[in-house]
């Protein structure tokens, strides 16, 4: 399977498909940036409004969590950042990246029928080809006036487009489904899902939390949590707390609330 030369993202075509009022009302599509999160942060500092969305065809320095990088080749995937500057997130801010992962899951399912699962906190995984592999990741970064939520979704990337070291852990919708997917349809659906879930999160957060817990494959599994510069934690993933923390029951029966880290599913 090879990647195809896909139609470039067009502002007009995305706008025609958008059903949102806030998210994407100000939409910027760039050919190349270093990181859409960085560009969105700067636009926020320059006065851009809540819900501004920055999309790029490719990123030269796509960011992952904890200083890691996000492989971002051109014209095949989606890389976008959403500016959140809204007082109503005060009590649910920690849920924003989890909600974004849920929005990716919803929109992928609506557009393609593919059923993905979520790996806590914000990885979107697919196992259609028999192995569980990551198709999307979310990076939330705080800004002076709120937050930027960055989403990277591998859409039409072929196996050969991934660096060798990612081929066993990463995948794309093209690889999972066996056919390419229209990125503009997906982008518009994703922003629709973000707007819908955001509205629910700020008014009835328990609904989003329930949908997330149902979609989260990390729960009810033995897991190891790799923590930056600390000994890894192992335990049984019991639930997700109301602030988004993963509640882990360790061998001595204690419940640990984990707020950041990399999860390895043990079985
Ligand atoms: C993430 O980090 O999963 C967050 C990725 C967020 C990317 C978006 S793109 C738009 C916006 N602008 C940005 O600059 N970033 C956001 P993390 O959980 O740390 O995962 C990073 C790790 O995933 C890397 O260390 C690799 O092992 C792996 N990886 C890198 N690129 C990948 C890709 N395209 N697909 C799947 N896995 C990848």
Characterize the structure shown.
This protein is of the alpha+beta class and 267 residues long. The protein has six helices and twelve strands. It has a seven-stranded mixed β-sheet with strand order 1-2-3-7-6-5-4. The chain has a five-stranded antiparallel β-sheet with strand order 11-10-9-8-12, with no helix packed on it. Helix 1 (11-17) packs across helix 5. Residues 35-37, 59, 62-66, 68, 70-71, 79-81, 134, 137-139, 150-152, 154, 166, 170 line the site of biotinyl-5-AMP.
Main sheet properties? 7 strands, mixed
Mean pLDDT: 95
Count the DSSP helices.
6
Helix content: 25-40%
Which hetero ligands occur in this complex? Answer: biotinyl-5-AMP
First-to-last CA distance = 31 Å
Low-confidence stretches: none
What is the string of helix and strand elements?
HEHEEHEEEEHHHEEEEE
Tell me the β content: 25-35%
How large is the radius of gyration? 18 Å
Strand line-up of the largest beta sheet: 1-2-3-7-6-5-4
SS-based class = alpha+beta
Shape: globular
> How many β-strand stretches?
12
């Amino acid at each position: 399977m090879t990647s195809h030369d896909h139609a470039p993202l067009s502002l007009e075509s995305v706008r025609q498909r958008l059903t949102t009022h806030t998210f994407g009302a100000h939409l910027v599509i760039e050919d190349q940036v270093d990181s859409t999160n960085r560009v969105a942060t700067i636009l926020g500092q320059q006065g851009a409004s809540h819900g501004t969305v920055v999309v790029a065809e490719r990123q030269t320095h796509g960011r992952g969590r904890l200083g890691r990088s996000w492989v971002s080749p051109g014209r095949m995937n989606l890389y976008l950042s959403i500016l959140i500057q809204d007082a109503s997130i005060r009590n649910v801010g920690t849920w924003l990246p989890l909600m974004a992962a849920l929005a990716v899951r919803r929109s992928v399912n609506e557009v393609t029928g593919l059923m993905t699962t979520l790996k806590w906190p914000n990885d979107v995984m697919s196992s259609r080809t028999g192995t569980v592999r990551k198709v999307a990741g979310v990076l939330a970064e705080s800004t002076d006036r709120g937050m930027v939520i960055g989403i990277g979704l591998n859409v039409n990337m072929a196996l050969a487009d991934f660096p060798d070291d990612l081929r066993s852990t990463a995948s794309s919708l093209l690889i999972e489904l066996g056919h390419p997917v229209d990125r503009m349809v997906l982008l518009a659906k994703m922003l629709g899902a973000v707007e819908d879930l955001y509205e629910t999160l700020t008014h009835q957060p328990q609904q989003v939390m329930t949908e997330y817990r149902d979609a989260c494959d990390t729960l009810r599994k033995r897991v190891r949590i790799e923590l930056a510069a600390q000994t890894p934690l192992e335990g049984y993933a019991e639930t997700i707390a109301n602030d988004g923390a993963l509640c882990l029951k360790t061998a001595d029966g204690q419940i640990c609330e984990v707020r950041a880290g990399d999860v390895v599913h043990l079985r």
